[in-house]
Amino acid sequence: MNKINKQLRKEAIITVILYLIYFIWWYSFAYGLGDADPKNYKYILGLPEWFFYSCILGFLMITTLLWFSIKLFFKEIDLKKYEKNIGRK
Amino acid sequence: MEKIKLILPLLIYLGITLYIAYYNSPRRKKSKNFTNEYFIGNRSMGGFVLAMTVIATYTGASSFLGGPGVAYKLGLGWVLLASIQIPTAFLTLGILGKKLAIISRKIDGITINDFLRARYQNKWVVIMSSIAILLFFMAYMVVQVIGGARLFEVLTGLDYTVGLIIFGFSIIFYTVFGGFKTVAITDAIQGVIMLISSIILFYVLKEAGGGMRNIMKTIYEIDPNLLTPSSGGAITKPFIMSFWVLVGIGLLGLPQTTIRCMGFKDSRSLHRAMVIGTFVVGFLMIMMHLIGVMGIAIIPNEQLGDKVIPILAIRNLSPILLGVFIGGPLAAIMSTVDSLLIQTSSTIVKDIYMNYVAIDIDQKKLSRISLFTTLIMGILVFALAFHPPEFIVWLNLFALGGLEAVFMWPILLGLYWKKANSTGALLSMGISLLVYVSMTLLKINIFGMHQIVPTIVIGGITFIIGSYLDKSSPKEHLELFFG
After folding, report:
1. pLDDT value at position A89?
2. Cβ–Cβ gap B229/A70 under 8 Å
3. Considering only B52-66, B68-82, B228-242, which range has the smallest mean pLDDT?
4. Is residue B462 part of a domain?
């Protein structure tokens, strides 16, 4: 049983790390590129560069990274065996 | 004729929803364990439905009307703020999902209170949490319904009351007879409608504005600050950072999301839901809020932010497309209300009635009482929406933050911290709520942060202090949660 608990803890930690990665990405591109005179903004797909990197690319990045992390680190657990009272009453 | 074209897509969509409700009705299937079937759908949700119901429940009137309205006033900075919500779906599911799935099966629990009761073994924790759910959910539902009926009035030109009746009848009908499973499946359909709806409006507006680059150019000419992350100083850093709590980690205990962690089928569904959910929520949030920004170039000088989306839709869409579009915001509202309604009912029936009033009760009577409770609460919500009392509108201001203040720490620490006990939980729930409400009322801002930030910090500290003041739960009891 303890093995499962360890696995759950690991998955929770990975989730938090992914959350932090998104935060850092979101913050650095938005304020790193965006805190400037809008006169000098460059544009990608019609959108200001900071916005494209921070929001659009950040969104695609985290979805992909999440997908990979789940494939690599998340384990399937049989939930059925915890069920009790099936069909009772 | 014009009106029929408008209403037709809506009626088709409502028809499908009602049919699904009938098809999934627990009564029709004569299930053995009624409350399990009615309030949690026998834990049968797959990945797609789980993802969509989490998102659709969370996405209400504000993501379709209020939020884009503010983006219209403040520009791209507000879209940046809205993107904070993108990772929230996977954060909640990733941290709470499997643990709650396992524990709820072990204790045969189907409500948040079942979990809190088993973990803390304290009557007052359950009572406080029930009161919080009932009060905040009622306020939340009534305000959502008002938003929906008003929108219906603006978009179709039909009377407010007509909208309220069509709306009320369908939501109440399918929730009462269909239960949780129908709510989840209709949420999935409503989520898809929301996506279609936002894609249509986004695409049409992009064309109307002559492409994205052109739109941004026009906005630059109106006010260059609208293109900056801080909106020229209107969105300060402490303010935007607060949203990492308010619509970020704070959502970790939100009852309407947490309950869904008890209802999915297997761990694969959860994994899939994390990815699908993140993708869909990101897509929706960016698109809807960008639409608000694009509105600056297309209809400058609109005074009321809330009206921007309806006006953009009316001016730019053909009647039949407009009819399809209306489905989006209405679906957003319906999918929120139905979920809160069934959870309100489960709180009354399972947490209060079955625990403290009638302990032993036969299944037949129970099913009647459950349907009846959902019906009464549904009617009450719509009755209140006819003439909303000021108290309800006032209460709604605290709904989201208040639920976070009450539930985040007891759920999170209850799952991951062995020393957590009822003294800590009670202390934290009471003090957080008090801090949040009084700071909001007195308009106290520390360093320009939203009140939820100090609330969550104080809530965490009081929880830990309280837990150390008393002894932990007995070892055999903890086995159930950490063994």
Report:
1. 35
2. no
3. B52-66
4. no
Q: Are B343 and B137 in contact (CB under 8 A)?
A: yes
How close are the terminal C-alpha atoms of chain A, in Å? Answer: 29
Alpha-carbon distance B185 to B337, whole Å? 14
With respect to residue B376, please indicate whether it lies within any of the assigned structural domains: yes
Q: State the CATH number of the domain containing residue B383.
A: 1.20.1730.10
Query: What domain count does chain B have?
Result: 1
Helix B88-106 / helix B47-58 crossing angle, nearest 10 deg: 120
Give pTM, 2 decimals. Answer: 0.92
Cβ pair A46, B233 in contact under 8 A: no
Within 10 Å of residue B134's Cβ, how many Cβ atoms? Answer: 17
DSSP B140-187: HHHHHHHHHHHHHHHHH---HHHHHHHHHHHHHHHHHHHHHHHHHHHH
* pLDDT number for residue A87: 43
Cβ-defined contact of A59 to B363 (cutoff 8 Å): no
Which residues lie across from A44 on neighbouring strands?
A47
Distances (CA, A) of B181 to B174, B260, B351, B365: 10, 11, 19, 21
| CA–CA separation, B454 and B452 (whole Å) | 6
Give B-chain residues touching A55 at CB under 8 angstroms.
Answer: 79-80, 83, 286
Residue B478 lies in a domain: no
**Mean per-residue pLDDT for A34-53?**
94
Higher pLDDT, A30 or B356: A30
Interface mutation vs chain B, best among A3, A20, A59, A65, most B CBs within 10 Å:
A59
Are the C-beta atoms of B96 and B470 separated by less than 8 Å? Answer: no
- Please say whether the beta carbons of B191 and B56 come within 8 A: yes
Count the helix, strand and coil residues of chain B and give each as a percent rounded to the nearest 5. Answer: 85, 0, 15
pLDDT in tens, B202-240: 999 999 999 999 999 999 999 999 999 999 899 999 999
SS3 category, B353? helix
Residue B358 domain boundaries = 2-397
Residue B459 lies in a domain: no
Tell me which residue of A51, A19, A79 sits closest to B80, measured CA to CA. Answer: A51
Q: What is the DSSP string of B26-71?
A: TTTTT-SSHHHHHHHGGG-B-HHHHHHHHHHHH--HIIIIIHHHHH
- The maximal CA–CA distance of chain A, rounded, in angstroms, is 71
Q: Which residues of B touch A38 (CB under 8 A)?
A: 220, 224-225, 227-228
Residue B29 has pLDDT above 60, yes or no: no
ipTM entry: 0.93
